[in-house]
Amino acid sequence: MLSRVASHLYWLSRYLERAENMARILDVGQSLALLSAKAGDEASAAEPLVITENIDAFRATGKPATPETVARFLAWDPQLPSSIANCIEFTRENARSVRGSITSEMWETINDTWLQMQAKRRAGHEPIDTAFFDWVKERSHLLRGVTFATLRRGQPYHFIRLGTFIERADNTARILSVKQARNAIPEQGASQFEYYSLSAVLRSVSALEAYRDTYHDTIGARRVAELLIFDEYLPRSLRFCAEEIGLQLAELPRDAGRHARRIAEVIHAGLAYGSLEDVHRVGLQPFLDQFIQDNYRLGDAVHAGFMETQ
Amino acid sequence: MESTPLKPIAPPEGIFDEMLAPGGDAVRRHYGAYGDWLASNSAETMAAKRAEADLIFRRIGITFSVYGDESGTERLIPSDVVPRIIPAGEWALLEKGLVQRVTALNRFIADIYHEQAILKAGLIPEDQILANEQYQVAMIGTRVPHDTYAHIIGVDIVRHNDGNYYVLEDNLRVPSGVSYMLSNRKMMMRLFPDLFRRYHVRPVEHYPALLLQTLRDAAEVVTPTVVVLTPGRHNSAYFEHAFLAQQMGVELVEGRDLFVKDGYVFMRTTSGPQRVDVIYRRLDDSFLDPLAFRPDSLLGVPGLLAVYRMGRVVISNAIGTGVADDKSIYPYVPEMVRFYLGEEPILKNVPTWQCRKPEDLRYVLEHLAELVVKEVHGAGGYGMLVGPTASRDEVQRFRAVLERNPSNYIAQPTLSLSSCPTFVEEGIAPRHIDLRPFVLVGREVRIVPGGLTRVALRRGSLVVNSSQGGGTKDTWVVDLPEDSDDLTPPAQSQTPIGQTQTQAGPSQGAR
């Protein structure tokens, strides 16, 4: 398989996953703003910017941070590479370059998503409401389903899955990291806002139901961290992502993937055999920072191994 | 729902219509069943079908990019819902003529890069070939497998109002459009399954399989690795490149995916370098190798030419085929058929004045308003003058350009291209069409029946290029119970068009 094609497939899925994650973050941010007494303050409005590391780019626009301006910026800004609109644009551009390696159903799904986005943009007032975020999530779910149902389990499939989980692991770690910093979690007597805030974290990664099923208890910060880091079965936990990354790399050419596999195995071992006690020994924040860095190195190794061959 | 009955509008007098016999009332026999079907359908049904087709085309992404169009960088090529039907008997003759023509062209290319017998025989002036921009010195003495230079050829054919087919030009570099032929058929079968029950339409869907076979034939290794080389996704025909690669099950590569090492060509893959044996290239000669041709080109592969000349990779079509589809060489093709094959050409050329010849130029300047004048190296309907439809101003401006550089132009009589009923705003109305069959030259010559029919969608327009408002039609070669059609003209007549209007006489090759 061509190195360039591998790169397009990998980034195609990373960008769509990024669009979906952005929609999740904004959706939860908006509904939280409606519920919370702190809704008016700029820090909570800016939270999606902090999570996605776009705070500087937003400040450069000179606009005040309100839930509305932040959401519009992250969803539609044409200058922002990771805005939802651009992620969908890049997804299609990458897909367009590798139409021969994906199924026609996949291409049509991606192209249709792009056409619908154009229509939304043309309609004048670019939507940034729950209906829009649901649409983004739905289109992302749809492509995943179409991929699952139509694409042969060859290298293209595994590069697509690899992109999805590397991007997703990064996202989950960031969401946890920001919530952790802002709340400075007290163990007992969580205030009402903290309750909403934690349930928002869970909802943003589709884990609210999983939390209830696992703990049958009120929502507590420690358990939220435990679930999102160590749960073996939750599709957005760090451990789950690491397991999937390992499975994909095992199906890709072994020699070219040596370095990436090694990094992935180390990350995986820490999650599969670690516990919350280990995390607290180093501190949750340093732990997450380290994870984000390791995951980043993994992305580099994937590039170097498969996509920059001579 | 309101319904408007459908009846094809007759073309103006003097135009040959593919469906309607002269007078416009009778339908030619091969269109009989279609005419009946049309009469039982309404304009509303057709409009609904067309809308459905547009939607599907857009969703599938069968679009092309238009150069210099910033706003809508992707447009659909309109696909008409009325088929162009060719009776099998006519097709058999075309097919025979095409095989003959491409065989002679390949012999000609081999000749001019080796023995140059045709030049020695004085049939074509030497400087026309050797000083031609498209003549690649690097190919002199370079052997290509099986002496086949052009593996994929698109021949543009029109039907004049005398009912005869004429070759308008040969495309021996990177002919495009075959993906539209395939998509049109797929769409028509989806929209009008009942029509395919009424007609036995010869299939075209196996084109990619034939193409792959042809490309494999072109190599001398046993199981060659074939790739399609594209300039990239910003190229106007990118859809086609990707489509063909996918249909053939081979890699679609860009220049940066390939590299030369130890005298061979490799592609970069996720498991390391892999050798490449056949490159079906969809970019022009000058972009192939920055070391040998344009140094500023980022699209090609440095060192490719050296490997090619050692015979370690096949490039299809070969480098240097462009000299044979140059419009200044076109007038000599009938002579090539006689010279190399010892046969009379089955397909006719359109009479052509070569403005490089003083007597031809004089005639062209005197009759500018009646003629079509084209650039020798032009393509895509750019840089040409269609005398009868041009304004006086345009004619004057073109005259100045022509006088400044006459050898850059040829002229031909304005053919009244045949018309075919087409679904447009005013109903089923006559629009001018041409035909591009795709000829594949491997160990044998293979042609899928029909080809791509292009249609000028503007009333009266003779320019069918997609970049100039042209559309396409599905092309059906149909077997009729008894293949004799009294409304179709007799076999090719011996009188070439244009003969009565000349004094200087169009050049039909050197005498």
Task: Explain what you see.
The complex is a heterodimer of chains A (about 300) and B (about 500). Helices cover about 75% and strands about 0% of the residues of chain A. With about 300 residues, chain A is mostly helical. Chain A is globular, with a radius of gyration of 19 Å. Chain A starts with a helix and ends with a helix. With about 500 residues, chain B is an alpha+beta fold. Chain B has two domains: about 1-135 and about 150-205 and about 325-350 and about 415-505, no CATH class; about 350-415, Dna Ligase, domain 1. Chain B contains 13 helices and 23 strands. Chain B has helices at about 30-40, 45-60, 90-110, 115-120, 125-130, 180-190, 195-200, 205-215, 240-250, 305-310, 335-340, 360-365, 390-405, and strands at about 65, 75, 80-85, 150-160, 165-170, 225-230, 250-255, 260, 265-270, 270-275, 280, 315, 350, 355, 370-375, 385, 410-415, 420-425, 425-435, 440, 445, 450-455, 470-480. A five-stranded mixed sheet of chain B has the order 3-23-22-19-18. Chain B has a five-stranded mixed sheet with strand order 13-5-4-20-21. A four-stranded parallel sheet of chain B has the order 7-6-11-12, covered by helices on one side. In chain B, about 45% of the residues are buried. The interface of A and B includes residues 6 and 252 of A.
Strand order in the largest sheet of chain B: 3-23-22-19-18
**Percentage beta strand of chain A:** under 5%
How many strands, what sense, and barrel or not for the largest sheet of chain A?
none
List low-confidence stretches of chain B. 66-72, 486-496, 498-511
Distance between the termini of chain A: 14 Å
Number of strands of chain A: 0
Percent in strands of chain B: 15-25%
What number of domains of chain B?
2
